[in-house]
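User: My collaborator sent over this chain with a note saying "see what the structure looks like." That's all I know about it. Can you take a look?
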Amino acid sequence: TNNQNNLIENIKYTANNTKGDIYEIIADFGETNLENPEMMFLTNVKGNIIFMNKEDVYLTSDFANFNTKTFETTFIDNVNVTRTNEVITGDELYLVLDLEDELIDNNLKKEQNLIRMSNNILFQKPGYQLKADILEIDLITKNIKIYMKDELKKVVVKTELK
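Assistant: Without extra context I'll predict from the sequence alone. Here is the result:
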């Protein structure tokens, strides 16, 4: 058979921006396609976003599609995000970072420094939990946007009163 893939064990990629923020991705295995060497399929994945002046974000998943040039990553299956006292789980997570600090009209590029989770989202924080289809976190402003794909369905929120 003609095998077009290479399997690599114990992978770690690290990148940082001019602010000193660090993004690292670690996997037990990585498989790259010889036709597109920038793309890698990872297994048993951990991602860490370590900010100089903000809360760090930790990610895990069973698999991920990872671009070794841009660090754009799609985490797949059993996705877990942890930051401070929040835990978010879901089926898929898309992460895009602005490692170049490129500015457009004095604003960071759109679709940069963003986490977008989709499907079976469960957001838990002390005192409440929330279920939704889509959750977006702007890593710069820390703003969170939560919504459903179907406008007729509603986000479910449960709170605990003390």
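A starting point for your reply to your collaborator: Residues 3 and 10 are 21 Å apart (CA to CA).
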